[in-house]
Amino acid sequence: MRRSSLQSEDKIMVAGRPKAPIDWDVVDKLLVAGCLGTEVAAHIGIHHDTFYDRCREEKKVSFTVYSFEKRSKGHSILRAAQFDEAVRKRNITMLIWLGKNCLLQVDKTGLEISGQSKISVINYSDIPIKPWVDNKKQIETVTVEPIDVAS
Fold first, then answer.
1. C-alpha–C-alpha distance, residues 66 and 37, integer Å
2. Which of 27, 106, 117, 129 has the most beta carbons within 10 angstroms of its beta carbon?
3. Alpha-helical segments (H) within the chain
């Protein structure tokens, strides 16, 4: 703590303004909810750098470590609530969402070609309509190159 050069026998004068109080219970709730450090600092009314410094002073860890611990708690609460909604209440939409996001399940909706592939194409335009005529189908083999659909 910095001391002012103005000292009297019975009183030491401290330079700067007094520290703003931080309600760490409020901070914890905001971090569990996923708020950023800058948002929490604004909520409690201090500059974010001051907030980070006070976290290091009072909690003895960096804000990054402290916020990660609280945010992880929030994630676990949210996962448990989603799981409960899906399994106990049989919410089909939530079951599908959890399956896709947690178990990496996917809906297969198309043909995926990687590398060169050969496919057979039947040209139906040359098939005679009359059943008594010879139904020879013209079959061609073509090489298909993959395309980049991200462009």
1. 10
2. 27
3. 24-32, 37-44, 48-59, 63-87, 92-102
Query: What is the C-alpha to C-alpha distance for residues 76 and 32, in angstroms, rounded to an integer?
Result: 10
CA-based torsion, 121, 125, 126, 132: positive or negative: positive
3: left (phi over 0), alpha (psi -120 to 50) or beta: beta
Q: Is 140 exposed, middle or buried (0-12, 13-18, 19+ CB in 10 A)?
A: exposed
Instruction: Give the bridge partners for 138, in sequence order.
Output: 123
| Nearest-angstrom CA–CA distance, 54 and 22 | 9
- DSSP letter, residue 4: E
Average pLDDT over residues 9-29: 85
- Amino acid making up residue 33: A
Residue 118 tokens, joined:
């050969």
Q: How far apart are CA 49 and CA 46, in angstroms?
A: 8
Size of the chain, expressed as the number of residues it contains: 151
Model pTM score: 0.57
